[in-house]
Amino acid sequence: MISTPFTVNIDRKEIDYLHQRLDLTRWPDEIPNSQWEYGIPLNWVKEMVSYWRHEFDWRKVESKINSYPNFKMTIDGLEIHYVHVRGNGHNPMPILISHGWPSTFYEMLDLIPYLTNPERYGGNPEDSFDVVIPSIPGHGFSDIPGSSGFEDRQAADILVKLMHGLGYNKFAAHGYDLGASILGLLCLDYPEHVIGYHTTSPGNPSPYIAKDAALSEAEQKYLDCCKQWYNEEGGYAHILGTKPQTLAYSLHDSPVGLAAFILEKWHLWTGPQSVNLEHHVSKESLLANVSLYWFTQTMNASNRFYFEGKHTKWPDEHDISQVPLGVALTATQAHERPPREYVERMFPNLMSWEELNTGGHFVAAEQPRLLAEKIRTFFSKLRQMGDYNYDTQHVNTHS
């Protein structure tokens, strides 16, 4: 497999067209004095769209992306985009970092300097990583799968092939949300290639629970919480899991509709919640993420993972992985905080369980330095436990 350098350069006409569409927005009505009970408030969306139209600088975002080495590699007929940054130190450990939904590879970029050059931030240079951040197929600058049934396990297969194509036979991994579902399944299907796995979404994917299983009090409380959350907040998931194409026409055609759909999740899932989301994530970062979905036209493809999840072979009673697991729990809502015994049903080799006491679903954007430190600490333990042979045969990705 050949790795080809890639530079992000959105045509000026596409930027102008976005501005035209924002100028032509037809705004909906709203119940007076309503806040979030009906959905994302009108005044807040208008404020964000005004910033998007008049202050947001896409070229600045491009410059940040292009400041890192970007590449594409064709795998199973799909062009996969990824960022690949070499670490300093004597023996950098390769790490695969997978983004979540509704997000993109851009969210994970701020982790890079803390992982590749830890000595600059008070860390040990021997804890450095070679960082690989792909765009999951159907997201960002990776190709959109062209047939039905492309699901999490197939995505995991592609990411393993990506790492092997880069010369990494064995590698570390970190992910959350959709990325955690993919990487968790990767740990089940390819445990021999995973040094260890770190996550802030230890409930993804869910372990197999038999109908007559004896649950702890904490497990039962957690499952009841998940059910309640889905009943109150999971309408989007039900639509995407049943009729994603119907919603696609509005999200694909209206930049404001797309922004409202994505930004609602960033507000509700960022923790601890604040009236001002900008206390946690800048407007620039928020709109960079939305813009990536708009310019790459991938919202529908990313949403389809909910529908295609019906075809995924989810863990059964035989699916247990001995890959070393490290968990960092954020200060997010209870449905993303399963008890330890629940996680150990699938990952019995749970070696680290920590509380971040801050951050939420998108913690890599909210607290990149803290998260990177936790990743380094977990894998430092694994480095000390054994002389890991990464079987690295570096591909020349700069030619």
UniProtKB/TrEMBL annotation:
<dbReference type="InterPro" id="IPR000639">
    <property type="entry name" value="Epox_hydrolase-like"/>
</dbReference>
<dbReference type="GO" id="GO:0016787">
    <property type="term" value="F:hydrolase activity"/>
</dbReference>
<comment type="similarity">
    <text>Belongs to the peptidase S33 family.</text>
</comment>
<dbReference type="InterPro" id="IPR010497">
    <property type="entry name" value="Epoxide_hydro_N"/>
</dbReference>
<dbReference type="Pfam" id="PF06441">
    <property type="entry name" value="EHN"/>
</dbReference>
<keyword id="KW-0058">Aromatic hydrocarbons catabolism</keyword>
<dbReference type="InterPro" id="IPR016292">
    <property type="entry name" value="Epoxide_hydrolase"/>
</dbReference>
<feature type="domain" description="Epoxide hydrolase N-terminal">
    <location>
        <begin position="4"/>
        <end position="108"/>
    </location>
</feature>
<keyword id="KW-0378">Hydrolase</keyword>
<dbReference type="InterPro" id="IPR029058">
    <property type="entry name" value="AB_hydrolase_fold"/>
</dbReference>
<protein>
    <submittedName>
        <fullName>Epoxide hydrolase</fullName>
    </submittedName>
</protein>
